[in-house]
Amino acid sequence: MSGHRPESSWGSWNSREPTTVREEEAFELGENGNLQDNLPKKSAMKYRDGSSIDWLHEEALERERDYVKKSQKSIRSLLSIWADSVRVWLVVATTGFGIGVAGAWLDVLVKWLGDLREGRCQEGFFYNQVTCCSGLDPGEFCTDWQTWSEYFNVRRIFAQSLLQSSIYVTLAVVFASSAALLVNTYAPYAFHTGIPEIKAILGGYVFDAFLTPWTLLIKAFGLALAVASGLSLGKEGPLVHVACCMAYMLSRFFDQFKHNEAQKRKILAAAAAAGVSVAFGSPLGGVIFCLEELDTFALESDVMWRGFVASAIAAVSLQYIDPFGTSKLVLFQVTSGGDTWRAFELIPWLSLGVIGGVLGSLLIKLNVEIALYRKSSVLNEYPILEVATVSAITAAIAYLVVFTRVQSSELVANLFQECDPARGDYHGLCNPTAMWENVFLLLISAAIKLALTAWTFGMMVPAGIFLPTIAIGACIGRAVGMLTQSMQTTYPKAWLFLSCPPDPIVRCVSPGFYSVIGASAMLGGVTRMTVSLVVILFELTGALSHVLPIMVGVMTAKWVGDALGKDGIYNVWIAMRQYPFIPPVDFNDKGRTAADAMKPFGTLVKIQEGQSTIKDLENLISIHGFHGFPVVRGRDLVGYATRDKLVSFIELHLSSDTSNKICRFSLSKPQHSSVDNDIDLTSCLENSVLHLRKEVPQALVVRMFQKMNLHQILFTHQGQLDGMLTKPDVVALLTAHFPHTGALSSR
Amino acid sequence: MSGHRPESSWGSWNSREPTTVREEEAFELGENGNLQDNLPKKSAMKYRDGSSIDWLHEEALERERDYVKKSQKSIRSLLSIWADSVRVWLVVATTGFGIGVAGAWLDVLVKWLGDLREGRCQEGFFYNQVTCCSGLDPGEFCTDWQTWSEYFNVRRIFAQSLLQSSIYVTLAVVFASSAALLVNTYAPYAFHTGIPEIKAILGGYVFDAFLTPWTLLIKAFGLALAVASGLSLGKEGPLVHVACCMAYMLSRFFDQFKHNEAQKRKILAAAAAAGVSVAFGSPLGGVIFCLEELDTFALESDVMWRGFVASAIAAVSLQYIDPFGTSKLVLFQVTSGGDTWRAFELIPWLSLGVIGGVLGSLLIKLNVEIALYRKSSVLNEYPILEVATVSAITAAIAYLVVFTRVQSSELVANLFQECDPARGDYHGLCNPTAMWENVFLLLISAAIKLALTAWTFGMMVPAGIFLPTIAIGACIGRAVGMLTQSMQTTYPKAWLFLSCPPDPIVRCVSPGFYSVIGASAMLGGVTRMTVSLVVILFELTGALSHVLPIMVGVMTAKWVGDALGKDGIYNVWIAMRQYPFIPPVDFNDKGRTAADAMKPFGTLVKIQEGQSTIKDLENLISIHGFHGFPVVRGRDLVGYATRDKLVSFIELHLSSDTSNKICRFSLSKPQHSSVDNDIDLTSCLENSVLHLRKEVPQALVVRMFQKMNLHQILFTHQGQLDGMLTKPDVVALLTAHFPHTGALSSR
Q1: Which InterPro entries match (chains A, B) (predicted)?
Q2: Which residues are registered as beta bridge partners of B714?
Q3: How many Å apart are CA A437 and CA A528, to the nearest integer?
Q4: Interface pTM, i.e. ipTM
């Protein structure tokens, strides 16, 4: 256990974070001379934590392995090929099943902990309120569930509410602090949502410490505590992290994944899809999320199939376990208000889109500022105290406003429902006489939640941003819906509302559905996703006729949001932590070419053909931590020698006899033909290195890195090396517009 | 109109087909000296029909255009950027709406024509049977609909059936022949499914004749006739073609798409998604189909969003028009039999998967053999006669067997339903005493449909393969389901069936659902798609619990099918017609490197730096039709000059003064410094050309072509050109395993 246990203070944890881009760049530029400890020792440990994998190289290895097996036409090799495939599916299916079960277990735990803040079950301490009161006839009063004041037999109203509220707040603080304590002490990587890191890892970032079983355990358990504490956070993103941890753990059992970073990432992508599938009860949403947000476009197409299988198994497992006996898969079922909508409704919908875009950008900006403040202020020293304070404030405020007192998921579920006399009233929402009060309360709740979320997302607890964002959007959407409805019922004869049915009893405007659109728009503004959001919300609502309005909301929010700031919240965090992730965006190079971005010939660390001895090479390798070195003769490019090939060559050949031999990388004979003194290193040259002319537009170079997951490109002209561009350079290009790049990475 | 009108015989049409890969290869190798007519005249007409576009180049143009607009900070340029985006969405939305309407209109037309084969409506000739008999009370007999024997007042049973059957067969022949006549006379490219061509076009193939308004009209109308004739074909694939024709037609109104082949293809991809969405009532299925089968993975990620918007609009339009008043979007609603399934059912499901894989491969093989036979035999001369004969045979056989007499879509809809006494019996399927007869009839129907489909798919009519495949699979699945059910009811106490409920009245095995799995497996075997099939069938059935069995069926069928032959039916046709399409498959290079596949230095047509005059260049260009020429000095690579840049340069500079000047592509001064006699052509060099070493594994080269949509790669070593590889070479590599490559392409 001690192996997983980092220092217990926030400050010292930060300093243990893996090397991030800027540092790697500095490192690659050779400014740091004392890195021998970090260098990969053997080919088994090819990548340092914090570096990026070389996809082309990894995939070539995989192909080679496949080819060797397929060319041996023995039964044994056939079985081995078959076993490889079985292992992949075993890991995929088990992960799917595992995350389905974990999701269900988490739901039960959260519900019980959450209810515990208000009372307890007489029948059994471990029953939540719903289970406790199940099996009653309609109209019968539930006596098994006791509020704390009933339990402690407090009769006076004032004492009752004092007791109830203090237990509510106290338990919230206890839960939140325990979560923070667990995370801070045992698994610091379990804090936050995890999506930015997963994105970076799937893109090739090496960060194994992020996926340990210990992180899995703390993240899952801490998440339950954090959600139950009523902090303004959701379980969706962290569930994706949990799913990836599971897949990583399972994949460690098989050498096939352990030794190939590309294979491992393909499994992780499937696991991420399963995580989303469980989080939202949306198996197709999971697949599309992976494609769009995690950018597994760049991976092979069979990744999509694996992701779909994992998603479906996860969703079926969740449905089969059915934690609450509702046999509903989705978080919040939407009762379809009416399938038709009218032209005038475009106005409120577009407004919701604009509001979502503006508030989404605001939330991102606030969140960034708070994160920067946290890092630079005294808060950095006391992460657990911060969590405790914020949870106390959250609980105290939440207790005051009716809409914030219930758990976010419950609130959202109710906001998404239409008012229906047969189904009862939710928190007084459906009382037509209290319309203005309700609108006011909804807007206040949205504002409170916005501020709390901006602070909470980034504290030392597992925290997803999806649910709070949905809640904010749902409150605003409902308010706009209610306003529209009231206008329509007040002025039914206005020309705008003439398309409504004349019968006043028939509902024309459905505030519940406006709530869904508000949530979509807010999500669009915060995450800047499009297809996956609509698919997830489509699977939530199920009605095809709702898709177009949701699209309108999401699209408007994205446009408005993009005008106010280019990146979604995950990409902002990636930039702040400076992970080497290349987002799949269109890069506007403003007419610049690769020549402006590349490291020019002069600054590169090169191997001079026919001048270095083996000893020199060994020296070079130990001084510079680069993934590879261009080999040149004068200015002519001979090739690109990768570090791992050089290391293994030197290990094989280094002896007192050879250490002074001159290295040759080229077959063509040199000027002076002292053959005895030469040693042939052509085998160390990498074959899969791209050459381009330096006049290529930057946009094309970026696109190549995006599509091919490249590690470097060399720029040559008529055989002469002009410069080189590596992944960190491209990342720097793409994050140049963001002012706080690297602000949260450790240095 | 005459411009669209090709010669009216099949033979002469074939000779007018666009140049296909092998020809282009020969052409690019310079064996054909008389191609001046085909050469692009101006930069406006960059690509010949039959060539492949250069994606990198097109995208660079688009970026440049964008950059120019964005750098002019005037209101006008801002408006122009905004207008570009509006135009894209206008085309996407209009296409979605258009194909939704067209799909609905097609349904109505097909239903009416189909019913016309059996009788007519007294109320109005243009009502189909359902519309004619609508509005009746339950139990009331429909008198408005008259069979032909009633209409002609024929009373004797024998005469009645003779009359009915002869009208049935005659009308079928008339419909089918009219479709064939229309296609053959006016729009030969409207035959077949269209999916292979769309795949090739989206991949970069230039084939504008395939997308003309004339083709659109004939394809849509011919499709209705062909489907109504009862031929064994479906409307799904052709609808995708129709959607693409619509998008193409709409995009012609805007220069933005007309002058950029990449932009045009992005719009077509969205249209294809909308086509699938309407064909199956499955908007998400449409998007995934585009990603998986049409391989738009390689395009930008905003293509997915456009595709989704088009899909959703199309589906909503279709639902809104609601041609049959059922307000059902899907072709065949599945009544969910029961949500639970038992372990023993894995045995019949796996069997169905195996059957699907085997029969799918058989269908592909048969179809290929028949297509080859058609091409080489006398049938080639009489395409309309062939269609008439096959439709007569189809109708005659179909009339005999109860399951084949109804239209395939109706049959499938009924096979997918569970037997339910309240809903009536379909074709006697639910009569438990006739179980063996039904199983026999189902298997016979499947066999007949298999043979007829293999023949029909490739005749001179618009024809999709989806629906017939579903019908075959549904028949077999139902048969297997009925057998399993009968075993279970006969031996309820066998240990295999112990998991079934003991009450014999409760249904344990649901034959209707087996039918769905059979259809999935058969589709998997024929098309080799995975995710999109499952998504389409998932959207059809709606029940999440059904997803896993469907996955099992599709996956097994794909494995078995892949073992029997690597390609799905669309890829087989692409190979036979030799379109330059690079499928997104994993290529097993068996350890070979690019050196084995490239055209070596010696065989390339090159420009020798400092030796050619402008006149020489002009000559070179007019002799060879290549997209570009490597420029070399001796063996050293100077660059790659594209044809269109050379052409426009020469047009500008060719005069009696300059025609004898020596061309220089390199800035470094030559040996002899006669500056006056030189002309600088460095601007003709293409910047976005990739260089690799020739030792690169072929698999990596293929992957680069797949991911980056490349047109060519140059292979260099230490500045020397070793060879070149172009798209047709890669296509040849990938289709090398298929024996009939190019068998149907014209030569």
Answers
A1: CBS_dom_sf (IPR046342), Cl-channel_core (IPR014743), ClC (IPR001807)
A2: B691, B724
A3: 32
A4: 0.80
